Amino acid sequence: MKKIEAIVRPERVQPVVEALEAIGILGLNVTQVTGRGRQKGVTVHTGRGVETTQVNMLPKARVEVVVADADVDKVIAAVIRAARTNSKGAVGDGKIFVSPVNDAVRVSTGERGDSAI
Amino acid sequence: MKKIEAIVRPERVQPVVEALEAIGILGLNVTQVTGRGRQKGVTVHTGRGVETTQVNMLPKARVEVVVADADVDKVIAAVIRAARTNSKGAVGDGKIFVSPVNDAVRVSTGERGDSAI
Amino acid sequence: MKKIEAIVRPERVQPVVEALEAIGILGLNVTQVTGRGRQKGVTVHTGRGVETTQVNMLPKARVEVVVADADVDKVIAAVIRAARTNSKGAVGDGKIFVSPVNDAVRVSTGERGDSAI
Amino acid sequence: MPEIDAGATAWVLASSALVLFMTPGLAFFYGGLVRGKNVLSTIMYSFIAMAVVSVVWILWGYSLAFGPGSKFIGNLDFLGFTGVDSGGTFEVAGVSAPIPHALFATFQLMFAIITPALITGAFAERFKFSTYLIFLVLWITFVYAPIAHWVWSGNGWLFGLGALDFAGGTVVHINAGMAAIAAAWLVGRRRNVEHVVVPHNVPFVILGAGILWFGWFGFNAGSALNANASAVNAFLVTNTAAAMAALTWTLLSWWQSKKPSAVGAASGAVAGLVAITPAAGFVGPMGALAIGLGAGSLCYFAVRYRSRLKIDDALDVFAIHGVGGMWGAIATGIFAAAAFGGFDGLINGNGKQVVTQLIGVGATMGYSFIVSFIILKVLDLIPGLGLRVSDKDEDSGLDTALHGEQGYTNN
Amino acid sequence: MPEIDAGATAWVLASSALVLFMTPGLAFFYGGLVRGKNVLSTIMYSFIAMAVVSVVWILWGYSLAFGPGSKFIGNLDFLGFTGVDSGGTFEVAGVSAPIPHALFATFQLMFAIITPALITGAFAERFKFSTYLIFLVLWITFVYAPIAHWVWSGNGWLFGLGALDFAGGTVVHINAGMAAIAAAWLVGRRRNVEHVVVPHNVPFVILGAGILWFGWFGFNAGSALNANASAVNAFLVTNTAAAMAALTWTLLSWWQSKKPSAVGAASGAVAGLVAITPAAGFVGPMGALAIGLGAGSLCYFAVRYRSRLKIDDALDVFAIHGVGGMWGAIATGIFAAAAFGGFDGLINGNGKQVVTQLIGVGATMGYSFIVSFIILKVLDLIPGLGLRVSDKDEDSGLDTALHGEQGYTNN
Amino acid sequence: MPEIDAGATAWVLASSALVLFMTPGLAFFYGGLVRGKNVLSTIMYSFIAMAVVSVVWILWGYSLAFGPGSKFIGNLDFLGFTGVDSGGTFEVAGVSAPIPHALFATFQLMFAIITPALITGAFAERFKFSTYLIFLVLWITFVYAPIAHWVWSGNGWLFGLGALDFAGGTVVHINAGMAAIAAAWLVGRRRNVEHVVVPHNVPFVILGAGILWFGWFGFNAGSALNANASAVNAFLVTNTAAAMAALTWTLLSWWQSKKPSAVGAASGAVAGLVAITPAAGFVGPMGALAIGLGAGSLCYFAVRYRSRLKIDDALDVFAIHGVGGMWGAIATGIFAAAAFGGFDGLINGNGKQVVTQLIGVGATMGYSFIVSFIILKVLDLIPGLGLRVSDKDEDSGLDTALHGEQGYTNN
Ligand SMILES: Nc1ncnc2c1ncn2[C@@H]1O[C@H](COP(=O)(O)OP(=O)(O)O)[C@@H](O)[C@H]1O
Ligand SMILES: Nc1ncnc2c1ncn2[C@@H]1O[C@H](COP(=O)(O)OP(=O)(O)O)[C@@H](O)[C@H]1O
Ligand SMILES: Nc1ncnc2c1ncn2[C@@H]1O[C@H](COP(=O)(O)OP(=O)(O)O)[C@@H](O)[C@H]1O
C-alpha cells in the first residue's frame, strides 16, 4: 500500500478529485496547506495598505490517497493530468510524494489491508 | 516506530483523544480535513438557496499519533472503539492508516527515538 | 528520500522557514494542527465567561519537508535551532518525525526522484 | 387628542429601526456563542422571528395585546391593523402619545419580535426548526400578547395596579427568561456537552453585543414615545447601567477565574441593559449605577450556578434575562424617584412600590412558565413534531442537517 | 416656501445615515455569497461606490438628476451643489418638502450610491476593478441621473404621467436589475462554475441582510421627506413585506429542496424590501402582505430558472432586483389605496394606474438595458480596459490578483 | 432659555446612539488589522472603554470638562451629574442648545468614550489590560477633560480665542494621535514584527470602517446640537470628505504599490472623516473635497513614512488621527466660509483664523503629549503594573494569555 500526497493549487482540487474518480479511486482526503516551492510568492499589502510584502508561502491543497501498490502509477498520471494549468505545466502546479503505508483499517467494519482502502 | 493516522468524524475527536489517554498515549496531533470514502456526502444549498448540490467531501478530522511498534494494535483498537458511532459501526465512521516512521526527535531536549515520542 | 515533519509553535514557523532557507532547503509546506504533548494546555473561558476549562490541545504548526537522505540531519539541526524558544529548549517546543518517502514527482515537468524535490 | 409631533415621530421611527436591528444583533450574539456547526441554525431562530412575528402581529397579535379588551387580554378591534391609523395619534384605553397609532403599533412589533428570539438561546443546538415556527405563533398569541396587555394596555390589570415597567422588564425579559427555562427543561440537555462549550466566534459575540447596546437606546429611550426629557433620561441611564454591569462582570470574571473575559464583558453589558429596561423612565444616573452593579453581579452568579443545574439553558437566557429582568423590576421599585419619572420607590420612602413590582414579577413568572410549558409539551407530543432533532442531526450539527448549509466553507 | 421642520429634518438626517449604511450592508451580503478568494473584491465594488458616486453626485450628478431641466434630464443649475442650500427648504420644479434642499440632495445621493453597487452582484468574481471605476462614473451620469429625473423630478416625463415610485422601484431596482443583465452577459460566465457556488460565509450574508433591512427603513420611510403619517405607513409596510417575503422564500426552499435555507430567508427578505419600495407610500399593511407574498414567490422562481440560463448573473441581481422591482411597480398600480397615499390602484377601481406603471417599468427597462449595454460594450472595446480579468487572476481569486490582499490570514 | 425642541432632541438622541456605535465599529476596524491571536484583546480595549469611561464621565468627567470652572478646566458643579437636568435645555457658560442638558452631557460622553479607544491602536498586541483600565481613568481625567474644556466650554481659553473645532478635530483626534505616539514609544516595539503584519481579517476592517462612516454622521452632524441647516451641512461635508479621501488613498496605493488596497480605501475614508471633523460646521462641499483630498494624501504618506520610524504605532493612530486632525484643524482655518458657519477662513480673506487654529493645534499637541507621557511613565514605573505584557504572553497572543479566550475555535 502506498500513500500518494499531491500538493496542488487549491483551484485544481476539484479536477483532481474528478480525475481520480474517473479511474475508480474514491477514498481520499484533502487538507489546506501553505507551501513554498520554486514558485515565487505573491505581493500583498501590509498594515494600512501603503507597504507591500512578498509572501512566499502560497495557499495550496494537499490531496492524500492511500492506494494499493498496483495503482500508484495511474494515480500519479491522473493527478499530473488534472493538476497542470496548461498542457506544458507551469511552475507552481505542484508536487507529488509517494510513501509506504503498512496497513489500513476501516473503522466501521474492522477490515484491514487492501480491502479497507 | 509507526505513525497511526485515524480519519474520523469531527465530533468523535474528543472521545478518541480520551480513549488514547486511557491507554497511556498522550502525544498526538489533529488536523481538519475534508474527505470522501464510501460515505455519501450531504446535500447543501448553493447560491440563493434555491438549488442544492451534493457535496461529496465531508469535514473530517485526522488524528495522528506516532507510537512505538508495540503499541500499534492497542491504539487501533482504542480508536475503533471510540470512533464508531454505534456498536456495529456505520459508513463514514472513518479509516485508519499505519505507516513507518524512522525516527522521532524532541525539540526541547534533542532526545531521539522511542523515548522522544 | 525522507519526509521530515516538524511540529512547532505557530510563532516559530517563520524562523524555521528562514533557517531552512539558510541551509538551502526551499520546498516545504505548512499545516495548522492542534496537538498535545507533555506540554500542559491553557485555561480558557467557556460559555459566558464565568467558568473555565483546561484545553489540552494547543495550536501548533506542522512544517513538512521532503529531502534527500543526505540532508536529514542538517534539517533536523536547523529546525531544532530555530524552533527552540530559548537556548535550553522548553516543553512545548515541538517534535520532529522522520519517515521514508519512496518517490517524488514534480507536476509541471514530470521529473521524478531527488531532482524533483 | 394631541397633534402628531414631528420630532416625537422622528425619534420613534428611528427607535423602531433600532429595535428591529437588535434581532440580527442577537442572532450574532447567540451565533458566536455556539459551536460552528450550529451557527446558522442559531442565527435562523432569530432571523425567522422577524418574519413570523411581523405577520402574526399585523394579523392578530397587536389586537390581542393592545386592543382595549378586558383586564387580561385585548380584543379583536385591531385585527389586521384595521383602525390602526397612521394619520391620527395613538390613544387607546386612556394611554396616548403624540405619534401616529400605526407607529406605536410598529414600535411594539419590534419588541414582540425580539422576545421569542431571546428564548432561543435556551434550546440552541438541538431544537427543531419546524416546531419552532409553530411555537413562535402560539407563544406570541398565548403568552406575549396577554402579558403585554396586562402591563402596557391602559386596561391591563398590572397597569391598573401601578406596576412600573418602562420598556419591558417583565413583558420582554422575565417573560423570555421563564419560557427559556421551560424550553430548556423540556427539550433536554445537549449531547456530549459537559459545561465545556467554547464560543466558536467571539468577535461575533462582541458584534452582537455592540448592536444590542446600540439598538437598546431605541428600546428604552423610544419607549418614552416622545423626544422629550423622559427619552433623554432613559437614554442616559440605559448607557450607564450597561457600562456599570459590563465593568462589574469583567472584574468578577477576572477575580474568580484569573482572566477578564471578553464574552463576560459583553454578557455583563447585556445584563445591565436588561435590568435597566423596566427602570429606564423612573430612575436617574445614580440609580442606574446601582442597577448596573446589581445586574452585573447577580447575573454573573446566576450563570455560574446555573451551569451546575441539570437544565441546559445553553446560552443562559434565564440567568441573564430572567434574573436581570427580576432584579430590574424590583430595583425599579427601590430606586424610582419622582424627579425622573413621577414615581417614588423605596429609597424615596415608597416601599409599597416594591410590593407592586413583586406582584408584577410573580404574575409574569408564573403565567409565562406555565403557559410556555403547556405549549411546548403539546408540541412535543404531537406526532411528527416534537421538540428535538435526532441524535444524528445534533451530532453533525443543525446547519447541514436542518438547513442544508454550512456557516463557512473553504472555497 | 414652507419653513424647515426640525422633526422632518431629524428623520431625513437619520434616514440618510441609514441608507448610506446599506451599502456596507450590501458589501457583506454579496461578500458572504461569493467564494472566499473574492470576498474583498466583492466588498470593494460596494465600498468604492461610496467614494466615487459621492464625488460625482456633488460635481454634476445631482444637477443632472434633479436640476429643473427638461422632461428627460436635469440641467446644470446645481453643478458643484451651487444653489443647493442648507438654509432654505427643498423646492424644485414644483416638488417640495419641509427639509433643507441640501438634505434632499444628500438623501438622494445615498440612493445613487447603492444602485450601481447592486449591479456588481451580477459580475462579481471576474470584473476588472479599474474598468468598474470608470463604469461607475459613466453609469451614474448616463443611466441613473436621467431615470431619476424622469421619475422623481417635478419636470420628469414619468412623473408627469403619474407613474408612482415612492422610493425607487424603477429608479433603483429595475434599473440595477437591467444593467446587471447587460453586464453579466457582456462579461461572460465565470470559469469553472456550474451552478455550484456555495457561499463562503453565510453569517456575513445574514449580517448584510440585517443591515439592509435596518437601513431600508431610511430608504422607504425617509422617502416621505417628513416625519409624518406617510413615513410611518412606509415604515410599517416595508417591514411587513420583508417579513412576508422572507417567510415565503423560506417555505418554498423547504418545500422544493427539503431544507429551509438561511440564505433563502435573507434573500426573501431582500426581495420583499425591493418589491415594497415603489409601493411604500401607497399601500397599507394588507397590500404589503400581498406584495411580500408575490415578491417571495416570483423572485424565488426567477432565481431558480435564471440558473438555467446561459447568463451568469452571479448573485442574481436581475432575479431579485429586476423581478422584484417590476412586481413592486406593477403591484403599486394594483394595491394602491387613496387612504394611504392619495392614489387608487386596480383593486380600488383604478385599472389605469397599472397601465401607467407598466409604462414606467417598460421605459426604465429599455433605457437602462440599452444604455448600460452601450457603456459596457465601449469599455470592453477600449484597449487597456476591457471588462474581464485574466483567467489566471480569476483562478487565483481577485483579492490577491487585483487588490493584493487576502480576506483572511492565519497569523 | 430656549424651549426643548423635539426635532433637535430626536436628532441628538439618534446621534448619540450613532456615536456610541462607532466604538464597536472601531473595535472591528482595529480587530481586523491585528493578528488573529490578538483580535479579542484589541476589541476589548475599545469595548471596555464604553464601560469605564461611561462611569467616570458620570461621576466626575463631565463636570471637569463642562462645569463652568476656569479657562483651563471645569469645576465640580456637575459631579455625579447633579444639575444635569433632562427637563431644562442646555445652557452653560454662555453656550446653549435647544436640547436637554442631560442629552448634551450624554452626547459628549460618547466622544469621551471613543477618544481613548482610538489611542489603543498604537499599543495593540502588547499593552497590559490591567494597566490600560487605570490609564483610561487617568487619561479622561487629566487629558481629555481639560482639553475638551479649553475648546468647547464657553469659558475655555481656546474657545475664547476663537479656535474653531466643530466636532473634535483637536479634542478627539489630535489628542488621541499625540497620546498614541507617547504610548507607542513608551511601550516599545512589538516583537518579531518588521513592518510585515498582514491584517488577519480584512472584512472586519471594512465592517468597522462602514460602521465608523455611518456613526460619524452622528459625530459631526449631531454636533450642531440641532436638526437645522448646520446639521445638514455637516452631514453633507462629512460624507464628501470621507468619499474623497477614500478615493485618494485607493488611487495612491494603486499607483505606489501597483494594486488598490481595500484596507487602504477604508483607511482613507477614516482619514477623511477625521479631517472634516473640526471643519464640518464651517466649510461647504467644495471645501470638503479639498479637505478630503488633503487628508487622503497626507495621511497616506504619513503612514508610509511612519513605518520607517522606530516608534511602532501599530495601527497608525498618529498618522491617521494625529495628522488628519492637524490637517483638518488647519484646513478649517483655510476653507471656512461665513455662508456655512458664520466664520471666514484664509480663502475668504481671513488669514488670522489659520493662526488661531495653529495655536489650538499646538496647545493640544503639547499638552496631550506631555501629560499622556507622564501618566504612562508613572504607570510603567509602579511595581506590579507596567505597560507591557511578558514576551511569552506576547508570543502566544494576548487573547489566550490575558483574556483566556480565543477569537475563533473549530468546534
Ligand atoms: N521538498 C518539498 N517538501 C515538501 N513540500 C514541498 C516540497 N517542494 C514543494 N512542496 C510543496 O509543493 C508545492 C508546489 O510546489 P511548486 O512550486 O509547484 O514546486 P516546484 O518547486 O517543483 O515548481 C509547494 O507550494 C509546497 O507546498
Ligand atoms: N483511500 C483513502 N485514502 C485516503 N483517505 C481516505 C481513503 N479512504 C477514506 N479516506 C478518508 O477517510 C474518511 C472516512 O471514510 P469512510 O467513508 O468512513 O470510509 P469507508 O469508505 O471505509 O466507509 C474519508 O472521508 C476520507 O477522508
Ligand atoms: N507521539 C506523537 N505523535 C504525534 N504528534 C505528537 C506526538 N507527540 C507530540 N506531538 C505533537 O508535537 C507537539 C509538541 O509537543 P511537545 O509538547 O513540545 O512535546 P513534548 O511532549 O516532547 O514536550 C504536540 O502539540 C503535538 O502536536
Textual characterization of the structure:
The complex is a heterohexamer, with 3 copies of chain A (117 residues) and 3 copies of chain D (411 residues). Chain A has 117 residues and is an alpha+beta fold. In chain A, 19% of the residues lie in helices and 40% in strands. Chain A has 2 helices and 7 strands; from the N terminus they run βαββββαββ. Chain A has helices at residues 13-22, 72-83, and strands at residues 2-8, 28-36, 42-46, 51-55, 58-67, 94-100, 103-106. Chain A has a 4-stranded antiparallel sheet, covered by helices on one side. A two-stranded antiparallel sheet of chain A has the order 3-4. In chain A, α1 packs antiparallel against α2. The longest helix of chain A has 12 residues, at 72-83. Chain A is elongated. The termini of chain A are close together. By secondary structure, chain D is an all-alpha fold. Chain D has a single domain (6-403), classed as Ammonium transporter AmtB like domains (Ammonium transporter fold), CATH 1.10.3430. In chain D, 68% of the residues lie in helices and 2% in strands. Chain D has helices spanning 6-33, 39-66, 101-123, 129-152, 157-161, 169-187, 202-221, 229-257, 262-276, 285-306, 317-335, 338-341, 352-381, 391-396, 398-403; strands at residues 89-92, 95-100. The radius of gyration of chain D is 20 Å and the shape is globular. Chains in contact: A-B, A-C, A-E, A-F, B-C, B-D, B-E, C-D, C-F, D-E, D-F, E-F. At the D-F interface, α1, α7, α8, α9 and α10 of D face α1, α2 and α3 of F. The structure holds adenosine-5'-diphosphate (ADP) (3 copies).
